[in-house]
Amino acid sequence: MNDVRPPFRQAVHLALQDHISRQHLERALSTLEGRVRHALTGEDAQELRARVQQVRTQTIHQLPDLYEQLQVTASQNGIQVCEVDTPAEAIACFLDILSHRDPVATINQGILEEVNAYDALQEEGYRLLDLHLGDYFLHLIEDEKAHPVVPLAHLSLMDMGTAWTETTGHAIRPTADAIIAALSGRVRANIRRARSAIIPAAFAIAETGTIVLLDNEGTLAPIIHRVDTLVIVMGIHRVVPTLADLPPLVEAMARGSHGTTTFATTILIHTPSQNVHLVLVDNERERLYREGYEAPLRCLECAACATVCPAFREVGGQVYGTPYMGPIGHILPPLLWPDRYAELAFGTPMCGIANAVCPVGLDFPALIARARAYVRQREGVPWRIRAFLNTWRHGVHHPLGRILTRLGTEALLSPPRVEGVPPSSPPPPPSTPALPSSASPLKRLASLWAPRGWGIEVEDNPVAARLTLISYLQEHHIRHVVGWAPEAVGMEGLPEALADVGIQWHNAVDNPTVEEPFVGLVKAEAVTTENGTVIIRSAADMPLAPMFHAETLIVMVERERIVPTWEDALSVLPTQATFVLLADRPHTFALDGMPHPTPFGPQRLHLVIIQSDAAG
């Protein structure tokens, strides 16, 4: 959180004067709002919200016990745990772990923004390498993010193209594809150069010590399998009681963030093969819990409230000075750090529109009222806040006041838009046609995978599967396969069979460098028919690192390992490994709120289902 910035009220004034950026912001967030509202309304969304509320309420009520349990289980898994109370302690912990000699890959989001890790490590002389496209571009042009999910929402494609040309000296066309290709080239080079990484965790499981990472762009899986030292940072409130509690939280995060039911990639780190540190950050959260203000700690930080908030869309996230933007940004920062952010509690009209989309069911007006009461009780109302309230009272005489008055009046006269998609938003994304519950698992998988361009083959035995694999490689003119040991994928004799038809086999354990196009070959631990997720184990003898350079990943799976839901899969997975869950092609929402493909990791999956283990 950068201190070199104008106070909130002054930042709002400046933002309101930038009419062009406001237009870009409104256009991008209107696009995203349609997706988010569609995902968070309806009967299934209400059922999900009830489950998530139950899990998060239970978590916060048991937070001290769960926090202690997590420290024990993570340590037992071989993860080194560091507890810190303040941002300064967090930075000191990072400095103890990271080597100055090694470039450090990072994602400047959430808890890492909160402790100001990026600026602090740069000041200490570390070379930081951005892993997310939006982060890279904003650091390149020395700008700040407009929204957690759409950090470049305040810029047009023409703005981005011009800024890129001016800062790099290389002209690019102002199109989404060209900009993503240019950014991806830089980020791909960052992945190759990194020897250590510091990244935020989405959750950690108290029961098993499992660390959960969520990613859409596809850069996290390659980096965690490449670096020697991995530092994972998490606020203490992100602990989850059990693995069974995880699926609804991930789904709620995905719906609130970008309007889908899952992330492209989910990573579960149980027992890591490299040097992994988990840094747990308090930063006043325990005090908030003890003082009875624990309700905001249930927040998933999905950004749905910011996406739909009319006041936020007038000014953008740059005015906040914290990673917590929109309605939650008027609650958490004033409660956690009132000395710096008391003013934020009074900077919103409390219209309640965001209540309809919060996947945790937070009552924003009530929580904002509590934050204001807390600030008043703690230190009175500073003069800047009194001036801000006067602006509200005399709104017709000031641009900010006119906007707040208009928004507040509209909220009072009109009920919040609870159902459906607002007229100003584009239609929701097309959904996969629902199949009847009686449809076979294979048909359900096919319906989910077809829009992604992924394929499925079903064979009776391993010998038939081997012939299908060879036929696929010949049809697509593939001359190289990088795979796990043949016995690990149920394909004894495969290298010899490939050699007979002129295809070269490379063992992934050797981390081979293959210059020509190749496919990866692995075996799935499970595949879910609920959302088409493929769950792949990663271990020293079954490495995934080379697979993220493959254009296509061929996945072998036994028929009995196709299960209905995440819950079913997680209940049978061994806990002594790391798992990568692939649910979609890598993509980014960073530019304009729409999903654009990114080139990290396999672009296509081809599933070969073996009906029986019997040899043919």
Fold and architecture overview:
- The longest helix is centred in the N-terminal third of the chain and has 22 residues, at 19-40.
- The strands form three sheets. Strands 5, 6, 8, 9, 11, 12, 13, 14, 15, 16, 17, 18 and 21 form a 13-stranded mixed beta sheet that branches. A six-stranded parallel beta sheet has the order 1-10-7-4-2-3, sandwiched between helices. Strands 19-20 form a two-stranded antiparallel sheet.
- The protein has 616 residues and is α/β, with parallel strands linked by helices.
- The protein is 40% helix and 16% strand.
- It folds into three domains: 66-283, 3-Layer(aba) Sandwich (Rossmann fold), CATH 3.40.50; 294-413, no CATH class; 441-610, NagB/RpiA/CoA transferase-like (Rossmann fold).
Output the CATH class name of the largest domain.
Answer: Alpha Beta
Number of helices: 24
Number of structurally distinct domains: 3
Share of residues in strands: 15-25%
Overall average pLDDT? 88
Query: Helical residue percent?
Result: 40-55%
Radius of gyration from the alpha-carbon trace, in angstroms: 25 Å
